[in-house]
Amino acid sequence: MDITPTPAATPVADITPALYRQILGKLPTGVTAITGVNDDDEKLGLVVGTFQSLSLEPPLVMFCVDKSSSSWPKLRKLQRFTANILSDDQITICRSLSRKGPEKFEGLPCSTGPLGTPHLNGATAYIDCVVTAEVVVGDHYMVVGSVTNMEEGSGDALLFRGGKFGQYLPIEIPAPVPAAPAAPETEPARSAS
What is the DSSP string of the chain? Predict the structure, then answer.
């Protein structure tokens, strides 16, 4: 199914790819490695910055992948994947899985999850899924996965914003200042009669 809007339905504006990246690049995203393994026991993987929760009941997640991806067609055939939420010390793993070619997993420590898919050691979390839908949207595929298993890992999630990697830093919100007590009401003075 293709739900790309037609040009007539799109508002007329001068939205260039550069402007689009500049504006949307201000929004931080998590970095997630989508992994699988084919029938020849070859590990497959790609990195996405659009992974997110879609539904609580039933538990569904979604991610988007560029139509030009050479890894997604291989992963698509499997109809199952693990979303490895990368930790903030896994930039080298992110870079390795972002490359093209069969050497992506060289030197990457991983174990096998319940679906037979790779769990990258040191990830913040592992979410095992089966593909339930794939929709064409513009220049991307939007993939929906039904969650079959979840496992918490370690560390804090790796973030990406404005072309740079980063970490989550909580903001200390000061406690509200208590309101000053209201002055007691006084009765008006009575005149002497």
Answer: -B-PPPGGGSPP----HHHHHHHHTTS-EE-EEEEEE-TT--EEEEEES--EEEETTTTEEEEEEETT-SSHHHHHHHTEEEEEE-BTT-HHHHHHHHS-SGGGGTT--EEE-TTS-EEETT-SEEEEEEEEEEEEETTEEEEEEEEEEEEE-SSPBPEEETTEEE---PPPPPPPPPPPPPPPP-PPPPPP-
